[in-house]
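During the second year of the project, the team shifted from modelling isolated chains to modelling whole assemblies. The rationale, set out in the original proposal, was that interfaces cannot be judged from single-chain predictions alone. As a representative example for this report, we include one of the complexes processed in the last quarter. Its constituent sequences, exactly as entered into the pipeline, are reproduced here:
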Amino acid sequence: MIEVDALSKRYGSRLAVNDVSFRVERGEIVGFLGPNGAGKTTTLRMLTGYLAPTAGEIRIDGIDAVGDSIHARTRLGYMPEGVPLYGEMRVHEYLRHRASLKHVPEVRAAVDRALALAGVTDVKNRIVGQLSKGYRQRVSLAEALIADPPLLILDEPTSGLDPNQVRQLRELVRGFAGSKTVFLSTHILSEVQAVCDRVIIIREGEKVADLALDQATELEDMFAELTTTDVAEEGS
Amino acid sequence: MRSAWVVMKRELASFFVSPLAYVVLTSWLIFTGITFWILSEFYARNVVASGSDTPLSGFFGGSALFFIPLLLFVPVLTMRLIAAERQSGTLESLMTAPISEASIIGGKYGAALVMWATLWIPTIIYAWIMSQHGSVDWGAVGSSYFGVFCLGTYFMAIGLLMSTIAPTQIIAAVLSFVALGALFVVGVGEFVLDGALREVCAYLSMWGHMHSFSKGVVDSRYLVFDFSVALSAVGLSIAVLKAQRHA
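Output from the structure prediction step:
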C-alpha cells in the first residue's frame, strides 16, 4: 500500500529525512516511531503530497505519489499533527465541505458514516472551534475517513488527549485492522505496542529499525537508547 | 472547476460569519457615504468650476478620496485568503486533498471578486439619490461600475498573490498595501513627469483609468492592463503555492 524508496528531504543545508526506504502492506497497522524532531512529520507530509521530496520515490496503492500526486491523494485520508480545522464551521458542515473537496458521490451518507465511525455523531451540530481537544481529534479522524480511503495516515493521533480519550482513539484505530492500512506516527512506545503490528523507527532522519511487534524486548532497549540520545538540534 | 467552487463557497461562508466582514463593510459604507456627501456639497456650491464633472464622476475616481480608502480596504479583504490558512495550519489539509493548486487559487480569487462586488453594490444607491435630484447619465454610471470591476480584478489578484507569499495575514496586508500604493504613486507621475515617462505613468495610472471610465469612455488600453496584471498575479499565486511544496 505504501512503497517508499530512498526518500530524502533537505531544508536548506539540513537533511530532515535521509535515504529512508520502507514498505507497508495492505491491511497492516504500522507505527512510525521516533523522538521529537526525528523527521516523522516531514516524512508523512511527503507521503500525503503536502511536501515534495528532494529525492526518492513514493508509491501509494501503486500510484506514483510524486509525479501523480493528486491521483495518489484520492487513496488516502490524512490526519495532520495539531488537527487544523475550520473553527467557524459546524462539524457536519466541515465534513460536508471536505467530502465535496474529495469528490465523494453521496455526501450525506458519507458524512453520517464518518460521524458514526469516529464517534462524533452527538456533536455534529456543534461549532468546531468550541469542541474539546478530544472531540477535535476525532472530527479530524472523521475527515480522514470521509472518502472511505484504503489508507489512513495519522500524525501523532493521540497527542494532547487525556488517558481515557487516548484509550478510545487507540481502540478506534485498532478496529481498522484488516479493513484499512494505517500508518501512524508517534513518539510514545506504549502507543505502538497497543495498536500496531509492526514498527519502523526513525532517528535523525534515518531509518534505524523495522520490526514486527513480537520482538518487544529488542524494541524497548532500542527505544530507550534512542530517547536518551541528545537529538535536540533536530527540529521537525 | 468543481473543486474551485467548493473552495470559493467555504471562503465566502467563513468571511461572512466573521466580524471582519461587517467591520469592513460598515466602515466602507461610512467612508463612501461621507465622500459622496462632500462631493455633492462641493459640486452644488461650485457649479461653474465643476465643468463637465458631476458628483458621480467625482465619486468614481475623480478624487483621491476614491483611491486612498481602497489602498487600505483591499489589503484587509485579501490578507486572509491563503495566509490565514497557512497560519492556522488548515492549508495542509487543503493541499493534501485531491485538488490542484489552480483550483485552490481559482476558488480564493473567485471569493475575492465577490467580496469586491459586495463593497460596491450598495453604492448604487448614490446614483439613485442623484437621479432623484437631477439627471444622471446612466451610460456613464454603467461604464464606471465596469471600470470598478476591472480595477477590482487586478487589485484583488495582487492582494491574493501577497497573501500567498506572506507567512502571516499582517505581512500580507502590508505587502498588498505597498504594492497597490506603489501603483497609485506611479500613476501620479502622469501629472509630474514629461515625455515618454509621462505616457508610461498615464498607462499605469489607476487614476486615469477611473477618470476615463467615469466619463463613460471605455478605453481598451486600460482593460489590457487590468486583465494582464490580474492574470499574471493569479498565475504567479498558483506557481508560488506549487513552489511552496518544495520548500
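Residues 133-145 of chain A form the longest helix (13 residues). The beta strands of chain A are 2-11, 14-24, 29-33, 55-60, 63-64, 76-79, 151-155, 181-186, 198-203, 206-212.
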